[in-house]
Amino acid sequence: MTALALDHEETYAPVGYRRLAELLGELLAEQHVDAVLQRIAETLRRLVQCDNLVVWETLPPDRLRPALVDGRDAAELRRLVIRIGEGITGHACMVREPICSNRADLDARAGHVPGTDVEPEAIACLPLLARSELLGALSLYRSGFDGFTDEELELIQHFAEVAALALANARNQAELEALARTDDLTGLPNRRHLNEQLGHELTRARQNRQPLSLLLLDLDNFKQINDSQGHHAGDTALRQIADILTQTLRQQDLAARLGGDEFALLLPNTDSDQAQIVSDRLIEVIQARTAVHISTGTATYTSATNIDLLRVADRNLYRSKGRDRRSPGHHPAGG
Questions:
Q1: Percentage of the chain modeled with pLDDT above 90
Q2: Do 136 and 57 meet the contact criterion of CB atoms below 8 Å apart?
Q3: How far apart are CA 245 and CA 254, in angstroms?
Q4: Which pLDDT does position 272 carry in this prediction?
Q5: Cα–Cα separations (whole angstroms), residue 54 to 12, 82, 315
Q6: How many C-beta atoms surround the C-beta of residue 91 within 10 A?
Q7: 268 preceded by a cis bond (ω within 30 of 0)
Q8: 69 by DSSP, 3-state: which?
Q9: Is the dihedral of CA 98, 101, 106, 111 positive or negative?
């Protein structure tokens, strides 16, 4: 072993073992996927010297793409999408075993990253496995002839095992949070998500002095559909409405199901006249595509007013009941 290798081992390995338990505790404390990925990169940088580091995520059915890249060749690495079985990283994922190649530049399994220099390089690749599920991989790249030592590889492998569990837990948490904010029947955001987003959009509207409109709608003949055709027909009608809302609205708008037959549309940077146009258009589209009739009620926040959008829109929704369905209730300001 060269002097350079001995210096490297003495510098990183003992420090790594002393810090491993503490760093793993910090990693497991993270709750969100992005935070876990960032913590993985930061922790590995403290444990082992490398020039580039990539955390890969699986992309069904058989590919890997970078979820986080850190290092001098980050721009080139971010553009990569590889198949499982392709290159050293893909091969490690295929066999589900760590692979270290301390002369990857001479390794027939390695693929060249477009835009990077061909030079002596060591690569350590570790699949991220949690409960037998392949989540992705860790790839560490070190330029030069100073390859990864056995001690470093053992350290990285222990870390990768816990990192995979932390990443799986964070993903599960994200899925649970998404489910808690999603309506099961329609797939739209639910009342909880709407209330959270309404608070964010009101803050943004006040800061930017922009209008913000809220449109509520419900189905006039929903009970009749359920009573005469059964609840399956009612569920189908609700899904149709959800699909129309999703297809009709702008990217910045939010459609949500509040419960029962009531839906809400949050319309950022939309004044009262524009909200009325949206309401009229939805009535026309829904009545043209379905057997459903709807009533709507709207409210608009402006910098000159300070109103409870949900309360005012709900009041105007019920005022519109019994009116001509093509003349929905609308409230441009307050009270």
A1: 65
A2: yes
A3: 9
A4: 94
A5: 20, 13, 54
A6: 19
A7: no
A8: strand
A9: positive
| End-to-end CA separation in angstroms for the chain | 81
DSSP characters for 295-313?
Answer: EEEEEEE-TT----HHHHH
State how far the Cα of 107 lies from the Cα of 34, in Å rounded to an integer.
33
Please give the full DSSP string across 195-236, using - where no structure is assigned.
Answer: HHHHHHHHHHHHHHT--EEEEEEEETTHHHHHHHH-HHHHHH
Instruction: Specify the pLDDT at position 1.
Output: 28
The CA–CA distances, whole Å, from 87 to 63, 107, 278, 312 equal 12, 10, 52, 60
Q: How is the beta sheet containing 133-143 ordered, strand by strand?
A: 82-83, 63-71, 52-59, 133-143, 121-130, 99-101
* pTM, rounded to two decimals: 0.64
Rg over alpha carbons for the chain, rounded to the nearest Å, is: 28
**CA-based torsion, 151, 156, 162, 164: positive or negative:** negative
Q: Rounded to an integer, what distance in angstroms lies between the CA atom of residue 264 and that of residue 333? A: 18
Cα distance between residue 210 and residue 230, in whole Å: 44
Residue 20, pLDDT score: 62
Q: Confidence class of residue 22 from pLDDT cuts 50, 70 and 90?
A: low
Three-point CA angle 240, 246, 247, nearest 5°: 90
Q: How many CA atoms lie within 13 A of 295 on its CB side?
A: 18
Q: Are 63 and 82 in contact (CB under 8 A)?
A: yes
Distance CA 172, CA 250 (A): 30
Q: Are 205 and 271 in contact (CB under 8 A)?
A: no
- Asked if 300 contacts 256 with a C-beta cutoff of 8 angstroms, the reply is no
Domains in the chain and their CATH numbers?
3-180 (3.30.450.40), 191-331 (3.30.70.270)
Strands in 212-219's sheet, in edge-to-edge order, are 254-259, 262-268, 212-219, 294-301, 329-331
**Cα within 13 Å of Cα(330), Cβ side:** 16
